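S., here's the first fold you wanted:
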Amino acid sequence: MKKWLCCFLIITSGCQSFGSLEPEQKPSKPPVQVEEPSSEAPIPSSETKEQEELVLEERFWNQIEVQNGVKVIINPDNILALVNKEQQLPADYKPADLVVPNVPFTFKETDVEKRHMRAEAAKALESMFTAAKQQQVLLYAVSGYRSYERQQQLFTFEVQRLGEEKAVVAVAMPGKSEHQTGLAMDITSPSVQYTITPAFGDTREGKWVAEHAHEFGFIIRYPKGKEHITKYQYEPWHLRYVGVKAAKIIYEKQITLEEYFQIVKKI
């Protein structure tokens, strides 16, 4: 009896001993960290940035009115006015803000219309000429604003000299010249004897202009290889002011002003 009782106490003691063991400790989970939204605006991707650049306010688009079968631009003060063989400026249009840019010209006459440009374009031309000179690139202005009447004289002269077929790809008809906008300037350099020639594009000065003009809001309006679009021969000397934003896109994409209006969205 004592032996049985002793065994019973041992067994019951063992059960109680097991029951008193602490349950297995499981590692606690690390606290979940919740990231707070950043207060900084996300940096736009290059694609988003390009989409933002390729929008253009309605006021920069041509407003056209057909007059006697001719497409006439009725908002000619627009700095992005698209003047070409299909749409022209009013015959009586003359910019109200013409000034003489402080740059060297190839002629001495002072009281002539071709010294003038619109104020915004003139200031940009001054900046470009200054930047070029700082890099020992010497540029000279040749011809800026040109009235409808003056363009008529030049076109008639070229027709007599070359014939109409050749004249129309070399000289704009009156009303269809960018010079009448006051936003264009023909330029040259000593390396081509101050002349207007396609050879200017191969000079150090011409190459500098082709590479840097957009930084000041200018484009080479009639580039090589785009004659089928512009309908004019290659003119590395003919600069057109369109503003830095548009000039940057046109330069980077190597397109014309006509093509620019095909890729931008009106807002």
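And the second, which I think is the more interesting of the pair:
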Amino acid sequence: MTARTLLAATVGAVVIAGSTTAASAQNPPSPKPSTTGASTRAILPTVREAAEGLPGHTVYRPADLKALRKGSLPVIVYGNGACATSNLEGITFLTGLASQGYIVVANGAMDEFAVPNTPENTIAHPEALLAAAHWATESKQARKQFDGRVDTTRVGVLGHSCGGVEALAAGTDPMIDAVAGFNTGYFAEPAFGGYGRDRLADLHTPTLLVNGGPDDVAYQNSIDNYALLDVPAALVGDTAAGHTGLIAGLEATKGWQVAADWFDYVLRGDRAAGARFVGPTCGLCGEDGWKVESKGLSL
């Protein structure tokens, strides 16, 4: 697998979806009573909107902020596949994650349509993710836009493919509390965008790597990166999803559920969510088509 192959493979089907419907919008999702994940989820209605005062970014968030507690919504910043300036490819994935009581700030403006990047002009910009994190937790514009509902002490970074490289790079910043990368990983050599595997040693928070099985061009890369991680971590594989299925394909609902479980576990201390990843009888371990490894994690 080469950097050229991985970065060129991120253009998939664009899924356009509206806001989700709600089971309940009265409170943030409560800790899940079992390890089965999706079957116990509360789904909040969501909206997609511009990030006021932060050009080049889009917000996915619960629609009825006034129904939620002040300071109750953690922030997740997201880097797109191919490090693209459009988040439309992941709209179902990002909407689903926001429906779990998260403020998701994705790279790419509201009206930016996906234009395939070539490996020659695909460049990682982790600073865009950190700018989004600072904006969401520190700016007056975000405080007004989100009516004070942001939990400024809980920030996660997430990305797909080249966007996962951005997430891993941004994840070394002290303000980041949790990291997740889908279909991604640093290359052994040459170091893509100046970010080599030595940077994995600078991660300081629990890190999730997800691949789409042997047909995912990032499959071996995710395995190699996981082996080098010194922080608590999980390696999760959906053996049939391929490179884009968990973000933009038929498996996107499963994809956002895995991401939500990870951030519920790390950012919210939800033990039921953590049980999806931890131990030989973990929740995902018992589901067809999934493989899970973990290290340094506990409930």
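Why I say that: Residues 213 and 239 are 4 Å apart (CA to CA). Confidence is low (pLDDT under 50) at residues 1-39.

Talk tomorrow,
H.
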